[in-house]
Amino acid sequence: MNPSPNRRRAVACIAALGLLAAACGDDDAASPADTTAAAAPATEAPIDTTAATTAAEDESALPFTFTNCGQEFTIDGPPERVMLMEAAAPSLLFAAGAIDRVVARIEDFPEEYYTPEEMEVLDAIPALQAEATSTGGVEVSLEAIIEYEPDIVIGYDTETITADALADVGIQLYVMPPFCENPPKPSFDSIVDELRFYGQLFGTSAIADPAADELAATVASAADAPVAEGKTAAALYVSSDGSAIYAYSALGMVHPQMEALGMTNVFAELSERVPEVSIEVVIDRNPDVLVLLYDDTGLTPEEIAALVTELPGASSITAVADGAVYPLLFNYAEPPTPLVVKGLSVLSEQITG
Q1: Which CATH architecture has domain 225-352?
Q2: What is the pLDDT of residues 315-330, one digit of tens each?
Q3: CA distances to 174, 217, 340, 346 from 306, in Å
Q4: Are strands 232-238 and 245-247 parallel, antiparallel or unpaired?
Q5: What are the backbone dihedrals phi and psi of residue 74, each rounded to the nearest 5 degrees, phi first?
Q6: Topology of the domain comprising 47-221
């Protein structure tokens, strides 16, 4: 799979870069970045979900108009039947108090990210039969989607799952902002704002807003006491067969994660989100810390680390010599969702031992 942009789901995608990127579909596979976490109050203006702003002066005002990936949409009421794509999407629905609206899912939801209670809920959701695409995403037929009569599909667009195609059969497509063709720069603020938007969309702001405040407070707390202050770092995605390495620039959500913990991204200036790099380049930049994103749960964290640490010359990297190599499950860093805030805590705990 190529790390490219679009897993359309990808940004996060890169998750595997090859993988994720997959989802990314056509671009690079990861997503933009920004940092800090101040809780942003719901705004009172037309909402651009790509930036997750608000669209109605009154959250309860209907119809509700918002902009998604540059297109404006209007809905007459909160969606009651939701179909989910993308493994990280449930974290937003849980936090917004709308998971009970989900009637079907198109992807599996890895148990590594969710509590046993949450997995019990997710496992009970019917799954559509889907085929993997060459970019790491999935493809399903419109007929299979229509069968569940969803009001809205949340995830990313594909060759068959497009806003126009679904609109023709009375279904709304909401492309998660990181998977838009021109995604916003990722940041913790964007996660907080997106959760507030879900509260408006589903009419559950009484649940979503406090949850958003809690996310913002968690990030602010981590940033106030950085556990790796002054360290240089590189976030890499390594293909599960070890054949390729990709480095995240400032355009990946993992960048603000590193910044929140006090680290400086040695690949921040790269123009692509997550370009392929050689081990020689990593050796030359010599980071103090290595964060290795992966989504192949068939490999142990130790095996993931070995994909880099056992490469020729890697032992000369300060991070490798000091044992500061931290494998991190992909959705804990990409795309921007509440799982990334959880991932911030996971990474912080790894660093502090």
Answers
A1: 3-Layer(aba) Sandwich (3.40)
A2: 999 999 999 999 999 9
A3: 39, 35, 24, 20
A4: antiparallel
A5: -130, 130
A6: Rossmann fold (3.40.50)
